[in-house]
Design goal:
Elements (H helix, E strand, L loop, with lengths): L1 E10 L2 E11 L4 E5 L6 H8 L7 E6 L14 E4 L11 H11 L4 H11 L3 H5 L7 H13 L5 E5 L7 H16 L3 E6 L2 H7 L2 E6 L2 E7 H7 L2 E5 L2 H10 L4 E4 L2 E4 L3 H11 L3 E6 L5 H9 L8
The structure holds adenosine-5'-triphosphate.
Adenosine-5'-triphosphate (ATP) binds next to strand 2 and helix 1.
Length: 296
Amino acid sequence: MITVENLTKRYGAFTAVDDISFEVRPGSVVGFLGPNGAGKSTAMRMMTGLNPPTSGRALVLGRPYRDLPMPGRHVGVMLDASAQHPGRSGREVLTLAAMHLGLGADDVAHALNRVGLTDKEAGRRVGGYSLGMRQRLGLAVALIGQPQVLVLDEPANGLDPQGIHWMRTLLRGFASAGGTVLLSSHLLHEVQAVADEVVMIGRGRIVAQGRVDELIQAGGVTVRSMDDGALARGLQAKGVDVTPAAGGLTVSASAEDVGRAALEQGVVLLELRTGAEGGLEELFLQLTAADARDAA
Ligand SMILES: Nc1ncnc2c1ncn2[C@@H]1O[C@H](COP(=O)(O)OP(=O)(O)OP(=O)(O)O)[C@@H](O)[C@H]1O
C-alpha cells in the first residue's frame, strides 16, 4: 500500500509538486503520468525517502519510507537505471545490493533469472550495457529483497517491444500475487496496457485520476455518420453535449444512446468508438497541453 497525502515540494518560490493525494492498493498497478517536468520524479523521490516533502506526507505500508526497517525488503525502488556504477558488472551490482539486505548468491541468481539477464550478460561491465539491459538490472535490484511494493520511474524506458511486453507481464504477475506497483511513464499506451488506474499530473498538480477504463469512457463517444448535423440535433434534443471533432462528433453519451439517436434520425453511422480518440493518450494530451512545462 502506498498512501500519498497532500504531498507538496517547493524549491524557493517554485512548486514542483503541489498538494497531490492518491493511494495505490495491494494487487494493483497505478501509472503515474505527466509531461516532462510535471513533478513525477520529485514525488517519487519523496515517497522513497530521498527528498523531504515541504508539506504533506507519503506512506509506504503505513509508514514513511525512512521509518521502514530494511526498506529494501519491503519496497523495491528504481528511480534512475543509469545510476549504477559503470565499472561494476551486473552481478557485482546485484551482489552488493544482496549483501546490504543480508541476502546471498542464490538470491542474486534468482533475481537475474527473473529479469532475463543471462550469466554472460551479468558478467559484463554495466558501462557497456544497453539502456534496456540497465532497466532489467535496475529491476533486479528492486526485486531482490522480495518486496511487496515497487516504485519504478520510467521502467519501460529503452526497452524494445518484446521487453515492454515482458515488463508488463512481470508487473501484472507481481500485482496478481498481491503486490503494489507505482510506475511513472510517458509511454501512455504502455501504461494503458499495464495499469489498473492512473494518476495524471501537470505542473505538479493532479489533473485526472481514476480507473483507466473509466477515464477513457469519460472521453465520451466519437461518431462519424452520413449526416452529422441531423445526428447532432437529435442528440442535443435529448440534452446530450455534442462537440464537433475532426471528421465527426464527440458526444458525452454511451455508444448505445448514440446508436439509438441515429436510428431515430434515420442517419447511417460510419464509425462509432467509445472513449476519447486515441484512448488515454488523447485524454492525456488534452489534460496536460496547458500544463506542459518543457517540450515533451
Ligand atoms: N532540486 C531542484 N531544484 C529546483 N527545481 C527542481 C529541483 N528538482 C526538480 N526541480 C524542478 O521541478 C520540476 C519537476 O521535475 P521532475 O523531475 O520531478 O519532473 P518529471 O515529471 O519527473 O519530469 P521528467 O519526465 O522530465 O523526468 C521541474 O521543473 C524541475 O526543473
